[in-house]
């Protein structure tokens, strides 16, 4: 009798049932394996999103470390939904691999955001001519900055690096305009929930990391 044909022990049977129900396979009958097996368990996925949101929050306490925290969180969730090796040790390895260059990206992002916020504040004060136009440009700049950060975080890998991730932003935005709008809505969601109740940043940024994984992988109309 072959290994596949021999009777299973109770422990093996329970493990097979769990793998079948979670979608991580192999399946017990002839059903095809899921495209994103790690996402089959809704509550488990929610827990993982909240956990990774907490870790992103911890790593991004220095603010300038937000890009690498988000990138590492995206890579973790991408591995998780694919039912690949998603040990937290790999999250921390990604953080270490991109921490210093990511901090430079974070510093540039923070400076750009502060300049845009200052422009918006000055436009509202009435000191600048054409204040309404300046304010609109400022908000548009902040929106573009947020979407660019999400796209770069989704593209980053230790092999590609931050320079390659940033260079990929224009092509990624042009290649999926609807997805770019989804990312803009995601960024707005994080800002709104954080403004409403700061501790909700953990859930918001975890959902943002999941959105970066899910939006490019969504089914599209041809």
Order of helices and strands: HHHHHHHHH
Mean pLDDT level: 85
Helix content: over 70%
Provide the gyration radius in Å.
Answer: 21 Å
What is the β-strand count?
A: 0
Which parts are unreliable, with pLDDT below 50 for 5 consecutive residues or more?
Answer: 1-7
Number of helices: 9
Task: Quickly count the domains.
Answer: 2
Alpha-beta classification: mainly alpha
Content of β-strand: under 5%
Shape category: elongated
Main pleated-sheet profile: none
Ends distance: 48 Å
Question: Mind explaining what this structure looks like?
Answer:
By secondary structure, the protein is mainly alpha-helical. It folds into 2 domains: 33 residues, no CATH class; 140 residues, no CATH class. It is 73% helix and 0% strand. Helix 2 packs across helix 9, helix 3 crosses helix 5 and helix 3 packs across helix 9. The protein is elongated.
